[in-house]
Amino acid sequence: MKILRNIILFGISVFMLASCGTVALTGRNQLLLYSDSDILSLSEQSYQEFCTTAVASSNANATNVVKGVCSNLLTAMSDYFTKTGQQHYMADLNWRCDLVKSNEVNAFCMPSGKIVVYEGILSYANTPDLLAVVIGHEIAHAIARHSNERMSRQMAVETIGNAVLTAAAGSGKYTSAQLNSFNTALGIGSQYGLILPFSRKQEYEADRIGLILMAMAGYDITKAVELWEKMSADGGSSVPAFMSTHPTDAKRIANLNKCMTEAIKYHPKYEEYVKASQTAKSAK
Asked: Which of the residues 132, 173, 226, 232 has an alpha carbon 20 to 30 A from that of 264?
């Protein structure tokens, strides 16, 4: 079984060499087997289906705050990518931000740029800075092409895995039970979906990029730790939907703190921030 796994991992590495992309702001190489047009088309279809049942929030003030935070983050990001000649990271993305009527504690951003915030999450993200943590994180998933990457990895595993396992089954080397167990472990045969659970690596990366976007827009990035701690502490036996796909633990908090130094350099008032920090330290 170890040999088969190694063969599949080798195959994935071949896919990586043939279809490699680079994540915005982090520079990490990633596997992208789907075209942006395919992902955007699927995303738009999924969004339209969501809209058939979603109800727009009637809270005008909250809606304006949410849309304002979205606008600030997107404007700052667009300005940065334009200034640095990296507009391709936002190519063909059709941004839209909505607050929907629901007590569910949740938010997401479609790969096409459709941002949806549920009213329920406002009980935690009740200030622009805290909202920027949530929205910045979700925007990060979109510009980092995380959905494409997740689906691509599954395609690679399924394509290579099925070929190897078929050959192994024909040789009689492994029993049907062993092969079924191996399929399950690799996720082979699972149904594809546009919005799949992101890996922990992708979640950490979205945290990192989200902090950078917050800093670009002038928000207080230290609020990121506060928000995750609030939701984690208040989860109890009924974990919020947002927490079920965005796990919070000590490692995540440590990762956020680790990213603060990098992110703050993107703040438009970075020098003032550094001076204020130095003054505060001297006062102690």
From this structure: 232
Is the pLDDT confidence value at 15 over 60? no
Instruction: Flag whether pLDDT at 111 surpasses 80.
Output: yes
Same structural domain for residues 151 and 138? no
93 and 201 in a single domain? The answer is: yes
Per-residue pLDDT band at 39 (split at 50, 70, 90): confident
- Among residues 119, 138, 158, 203, which one is catalytic? 138
Task: Look up the domain containing 235 and give its range.
Answer: 36-145+196-283
Question: Same domain, yes or no, for 9 and 67?
Answer: no
**Torsion over CA: 55, 59, 62, 63 (sign):** positive
Residue 171 in domain: yes
Residue 172 and residue 206 in one domain: no
Answer yes or no: is pLDDT of 1 > 90.
Answer: no
Q: Does one domain contain both 48 and 114?
A: yes
Count Cβ neighbours within 10 Å for each residue of 201-221 and write b for 16 or more, e otherwise.
ebbbbbbbbbbbbbbbbebbb
Report the candidate in 180, 49, 47 with the shortest Cα–Cα distance to residue 115: 47
Same domain, 170 and 180: yes
Report how far apart, in Å, the C-alpha atoms of 141 and of each of 29, 118, 137, 213, 273 are.
15, 18, 7, 12, 28
Q: Which of 188, 190, 191 is nearest to 8 (CA)?
A: 188
Where is the domain boundary, 131, 160, 186? 186
Does residue 191 lie in a domain region? Answer: no
Report how far residue 240's alpha carbon sits from residue 242's, in angstroms, rounded to the nearest whole number. 5
The answer to whether residues 132 and 67 belong to one domain is: yes
Q: Is 96 within 8 Å of 158 (Cβ atoms)?
A: no
Q: Torsion angle of alpha carbons 178, 183, 189, 190, nearest 10°? A: 120
State yes or no: is 138 an active-site residue.
yes
Residue listed under structure tokens 């995540």: 252
